[in-house]
Design goal:
Number of helices: 5
Oligomer: single chain
Helix content: 10-25%
Low-confidence stretches: 1-43, 348-388
Shape: elongated
Mean pLDDT: 79
Number of domains: 3
Amino acid sequence: MVLARSVSFFSPSRNWVLSLVCISVLLTLFSTLSWRHIFAQQAAFVTVSAASYRADGIAPESIVAGFGVNLSTETASGRDSDPNTPGVQLPTTLAGVTVRVKNVAAPLFFVSPMQINYQIPANTPPGEVAVVASNSRGEQAIGTINVMQVAPAIFTANADGIGVPASLVLRVTANGSQSYETLAAFNQTAGRLLATPINLGLEGERVFLILYLTGLRRVPDPNNDGNFSEFTRVIINGLPVVPAYAGVAPGFIGLEQINVEIPRTLLGSVALDVQVLVSGFGVSNLTGVELVAPAITNLTFRPLGLSNRTIRAFATIGYHLFAATNQGVWCSYDSGTNWINLTTACRQMPTCAHFLWTVRRFMSGWAAVAASSFQLTMGKAGRCLTMG
């Protein structure tokens, strides 16, 4: 099994799954909530990323959505305009509608009176660019976009740029067999798709998250192998993970995919924030997935720790645990078995500067946590910290 190439992740029976993801993402953008939110900016023709809904998520060959009024006299979806040419050739005129980006006709996915989904032309230069949408009556809507070389944007299951990504899960068992799983399910109460928790399985299993994005076509590819992983990282709960593959989704216009293994070190973290970072070009919209919480097989209580004290706040910095109590600030280096009273330690130090250097070295940011419950003041040497 070759994990570095995206095509190895798909069998013929799975192509319809990706097609369904793409079609649902593009067409569900046409919702009253979505266009009202965007058009509230009161511009004639407002263009945003069709994945993230951000105006700063636009790059050459990326899929975008433009909003306005009287953009088209009818609703229509684009089809392959030249079946005799390999690949899919989107039309540049659809139901009498054209969109010109810096005077270059843009490929059209979908047109309607209030929304047009289109692709930024391949050779569009970075910077502020004029966009003109024209309908069959000759009416025009004019706007501008800020084009970046690379603008990663993750498609989401609810087509709103947030929440669970429009993704698949690939499970590889210890014997090498592969199976695909969906990542979201419709919740009647919430009225939207919610994350289906991912089970990382037994030791030896590998679980990959397959993300679908747009805006990555111009990521540097030093060895020209079609894999942009050299410059691409998936940030999972703040942990940068090198993807097995980051590149073009085969057979789809303007769509990229990232295959990234979910580290088993994240076991125990139920909610995972997921973003894509392209070095030197910025970060994508924030999405989220969930993990199945591991079962507790053994639970033992120990009569140790901060007994007989009122704990107001906790903070963790690296392997150090800090507790703010009415009796002072305490620190543990062994997961709460033993504690050091930092207030007492402060009194034993010759100067406040020495104390502050020690605190900053080991617990940068602790004061912001403790300050919600305590007033921190500086005193003279020998009484550096006053809790009140």
